[in-house]
C-alpha cells in the first residue's frame, strides 16, 4: 500500500478577514504542506483528511483546539488550510479557536493525515509555533503589561498621576471644601428662592384661626344624637347575619389540620404519591476518533467526550485513558451502546463486545457480532439493565480476530446533509 507523508513547506500566520456568515471575528493560521509518497514523489489531486491540534507541549495528550478538515492536493501535491477559521466543511472537535490564550505559554502544532477516509489518522509530527500574531496575543493582554502613557485619542487620560488627573477633570477642589465655597446648581438655587417664608404663611395662619372649635360643633352633635335608630335598621340586619365563632368551627378544624412549613416528611410524600420518587441520573459519552485493537486482546473503549450528564461521570483508568463511567447513586441502570466497526479487506471477522463492572466482566453481557469486510461499515448495538451501588463504575470492552477490523467514526456528509457518526457511543440512565 502506498504510504503518504507531508513535507511542510511553510507555515504563515495571519489574521483572516471576518466571514460574512460569522458574527464574531474569524481569525486563523494559514498552513501549507506538500504530500509525498514513501519514494519522495508528490501525490497530486488526492483527497485527504487533515486533523490539526494545538497543544501546550509535545508530550501532552490534552489539546487546546482540534479540527478535522478534508482537503484535495493540487497538481503539485500542495494543499492549504486555515487553522481556526470557520468553514462549512470543517469539523471542530475541540475549541473554540478564539478561546486559546496565546499569552500564557508556548504553543505546538500537531498534524495528522487520514489517507483512506476512515478517520484512521497518521501522526506526521509536532512542531513549535515560534511566532504568535500580535492580534492573537492582544486578545489576552493584561493592563499590567502596558507601559508608558496612553493618550486621549487611544482611550487613555494622557496623564501619569492622580493630582494632574483631578486638575484636568476640574475635581481637584471637591475634598475639604467649606460649605460657603461649594458650588450650587441653578436648579437648587431656583428651588430655594421659591420656598415659603414666614410672611408667606400669614394667609394660611388666618385660615387656621377661623377653624371650628369644640363649642362650634355642639349644634352638629345634637343633630347626630337625634338621628332615629330606624336609619340603621339595614346595617343592623347585615351585622346580625355575620358569622359567629360557632359558625366557623368546621373552617377552624381544617386550618388546624394544615401542614406547616418544615412538617412535611419524606414518608408523607411517598404515601401521597403512591411510589418512591428517585433522583434524575443520566449520561451520554462518545468518541469520534478511531480506536484500534490488537487481535484477540480485550480492549477498553475510550469516551473522551461528554454529550450531557447528571450524577454520572467519566474518569481515567490506570493507563490514563477515559474508560471508567461512574455513578453517584445506587440503583438499576439501563445501559445502551453503539459501536461502528470497519474491515478494509475482504472476508469476514467476528467481534465481541461486553461490559465490565468494577473491573470484572459482567455476567452474560458478551455479544458476538459477524463483521463484513470490503470496507463496509458495521454497526454493533446492545442494551442491558445492570444493578449498581453508589460510586460503582462500568467499562465497555471489545475484541477482534482480524487486525484489519477497527472501531472508527464517519465525518459529516452531504447530499443529503448528515451529521458525523461517532466511533463509539454509550448512554446510561437510572430507572425506577
Number of helices: 8
Low-confidence runs: 8-24
Shape: flat
How much strand?
25-35%
- Helical coverage, percent range: 10-25%
Q: Main β-sheet: number of strands, strand sense, barrel status? A: 7 strands, antiparallel
Secondary structure: elements and pairs:
Layout: E1 4-14, E2 28-37, E3 47-55, E4 63-72, E5 78-83, E6 91-94, E7 108-114, E8 122-128, H1 134-138, H2 162-168, H3 186-193, H4 202-209, H5 218-225, H6 233-240, H7 249-256, H8 266-273, E9 282-287, E10 299-300, E11 305-310, E12 312-316, E13 322-327, E14 331-343, E15 348-357, E16 360-361, E17 367-372, E18 377-388, E19 393-399, E20 405-407, E21 424-431
Report what the structure shows.
It is a single chain. This protein has 432 residues and is an alpha+beta fold. Among the domains are: 135 residues, Immunoglobulin-like (Sandwich); 150 residues, Jelly Rolls (Sandwich), CATH 2.60.120.40. The chain contains 8 helices and 21 strands. Strands 10, 12, 13, 15, 16, 17 and 19 form a 7-stranded antiparallel beta sheet that branches. The longest helix has 8 residues.
